[in-house]
Design goal:
NAD, 22 strands, PaaN_2, 20 helices, alpha/beta, 19% strand, Ald_DH_N, Aldehyde Dehydrogenase, Chain A, domain 2, 2 domains, Aldehyde_DH_dom, Phenylacetic acid degradation protein PaaN, globular, Aldehyde Dehydrogenase, Chain A, domain 1, 5-stranded parallel beta sheet
């Protein structure tokens, strides 16, 4: 091992590192210093994008062979297939066996991959061994490691897309972009905010003051960011890395070891990330056990054991509201960052373009089979209808336009496969069947859910949107998230009544996305105030784009002001409590 004296890198975006300029540090090679230099322009750009909120991505979102060439897509698929039906090449401290129960929602066949099953106490003991060295590392080294992890993951987008597709049920393109490039952007965004936060405190300061008639005193003060403890990241089944990348980056960059708890249905994408982290950490001369994997089964879950461990200080969770709210209630002594779900709504008052509006809403009902935290569920329309393109149209015409837009989007199997993907599990099929019956009793079925024939996978578990018409008196049906392609067109007494109902639901039950369509500026302003007071963000008159889309560096995803979650991806609050400041002060002679 060489002993290398690390010096500060040049200023980044007019800020300087808050570390003492010379720090003794043992590293196995100098490449980890080069990583920061290599990737600093990417970090610069991410910080600038966060500061100015414009459209930018650090990673290629399209899997097109016209961009990548023919070899990378084929190689990525081959690497994915090479992982099937064998032990995943990853060892963990405290390993007590192997587990794995993933089944592809496309083929209905097991992936046959096994992962280390761990003893929590032994895992945590191993994770603690390298934490002091990581916490003491200069920031340019730590951030260089994190940037290199993201870079290497960006080189694995094709195999990650296949892994996500065959565990989470997304279409290949959605898996490549939403669970690949876009999720990586959220990771880089969190890293940018961590960097910004850690620059707020200087490394040292000279403090001088006179007390009464005594001689002036001079203190030299040093300030050191300190990590708070192990972060447990609990990933969801449908978008396993959506919170995985940002939670990992936010904790690791601020000095905290991280254990990634994968969902049993979708372990492979998380295991691939953990393997990459451990490889980079090892190359940089750090203990690879700073990042570990906790794989489990549905019958023997391990999440609560992780949360109960004394060394766990941070919890990041994305998943069902039921477990998310349990974490919020029972882990109040920890730092808890949740993103769950809510009753995402649309209020339609009027529109300039009925067809474009209907298509935008229909796409949200179809995309990823509405297994997204941003999917629309509740569509509020006044009973008297709306004004569209200068003419009055009835409630039935508006509802019919949305149903027809769904039918048009799914008219071709290739388009249905692109938009819908598959259902992640059979529970969703059971929910659809239940709501079909209950919705027919309360109101009427405007569009039934049926399977579509996937053009490539004949055994794929598929379902198109179920659309139900109900009234506000049927609130018990729609006042909770119904995971999957189930939506309600809700008849209100007036447009104001629709707005009041939707914003009240956001406050009471949560909302991650809310939408209003109106040509009336005054109504839009009232809607903005009403939803914002309910702790919800609002999008107005979105057409010609996927309205589910949340843009990294620009959109603050989840507000933390309603029951849909406590965390925001990403703001400073997402990172600032993951470290604390200690100081030393010495009187100068």
């Amino acid at each position: 091992m060489k002993v290398l004296r690390c010096k500060l890198a040049p200023d980044i975006v007019n800020v300087t590192f808050n570390i003492v300029p010379t720090v003794e540090w043992n590293v196995s090679k100098t490449t980890n210093l080069d990583w920061f230099t290599t990737h600093r322009s990417t970090l610069n750009k991410a910080i600038d994008a966060c500061n100015n909120r414009y459209a930018w991505t650090a990673y290629i979102e399209s899997p097109s062979s016209k961009i990548h060439g023919k070899e990378p897509p084929a190689q990525g698929k081959a690497r994915f297939e090479a992982m099937l039906n064998r032990d995943f090449s990853l060892t963990m401290p405290g390993e007590i066996g192997r587990v794995g129960e993933e089944v592809s929602p496309y083929t209905r066949e097991p992936l046959g991959i096994s992962y280390p099953q761990i003893d929590v106490q032994a895992l945590y003991q191993a994770m603690g061994k390298g934490k002091e060295a990581w916490a003491d590392a200069p920031l340019d080294i730590r951030f260089g490691v994190c940037l290199e992890i993201l870079h290497r993951c960006s080189q694995q987008l094709f195999e990650n897309a296949h892994a996500t597709m065959h565990t989470s049920g997304q279409s290949f393109i959605m898996a490549f972009a939403g669970s690949g490039a876009n999720a990586l952007d959220r990771g880089l965004e969190a890293l940018a905010y961590a960097y910004k936060a850690m620059q707020d405190v200087p490394a040292s300061a000279t403090w001088q003051r006179r007390f009464g008639s005594e001689p002036e005193v001079c203190l030299e003060k040093q300030y050191k960011p300190m990590p708070v403890g192990i972060g447990a990241v609990i990933c969801c089944a449908t978008f396993p890395l959506w919170n995985g990348y940002p939670a990992l980056m936010a904790s690791l960059a601020t000095g905290n070891p991280v254990v990634m708890k994968a969902h049993p249905n979708a372990t492979l994408p998380v295991a691939m990330l953990v393997k990459t982290c451990r490889e980079v950490l090892t190359e940089a001369g750090f203990d690879p056990n700073l990042v570990t994997l906790a794989a489990d089964t549905r019958k023997e879950p391990v999440a609560k054991a992780l949360l109960a461990h004394d060394d766990t200080a941070i919890v990041d969770f994305t998943g069902s509201p039921t477990f998310g709210h349990w974490i919020e209630q029972h882990c109040a002594h920890l730092q808890v960052y949740t993103e769950t779900a809510g009753c995402n709504s649309v209020v339609i008052e009027s529109t300039h373009n009925l067809s474009a509006m209907a298509t935008a809403i229909a796409q949200s009902l179809c995309q990823a089979s509405a297994q997204m935290c941003t999917s629309v569920q509740n569509i509020h329309i006044p009973a008297s209808g709306i004004v569209a393109e200068g003419r009055q149209i009835s409630f039935d015409e508006v509802a019919g336009a949305i149903v027809e837009a769904v039918n048009q989007l799914l008219a071709k199997p290739e388009q249905a496969a692109f938009l819908c993907g598959t259902l992640v599990n059979d529970d969703i099929s059971a929910t659809i069947a239940r709501l079909r019956e209950e919705g027919a009793k309360a109101g009427r079925v405007l569009r039934d859910s049926t399977p579509y024939s996937h053009p490539e996978f004949s055994q794929a578990r598929t379902a198109t949107p179920l659309i139900l018409e109900v009234s506000q008196q049927d609130k018990a049906l729609y006042s909770q998230e119904l995971f999957g392609p189930i939506s309600f067109i809700i008849k209100g007494r007036s447009s104001e009544d629709c707005l009041d109902a939707a914003s009240a639901d956001a406050a009471q039950y949560g909302a991650i996305t809310s939408h209003v369509y109106s040509t009336d500026d005054d109504f839009i302003q009232r809607a903005q105030k009403s939803f914002n007071r309910s702790g919800a963000s609002l999008a107005c008159n979105l057409i010609n784009m996927p309205i589910n889309f949340a843009a990294a560096y620009s959109d603050f995803h989840v507000t933390g002001l309603n029951p849909a979650g406590t965390a925001c991806l990403t703001d400073l609050a997402f990172v600032t409590r993951r470290f604390r400041i200690v100081q030393n002060k010495v009187m100068q002679a």
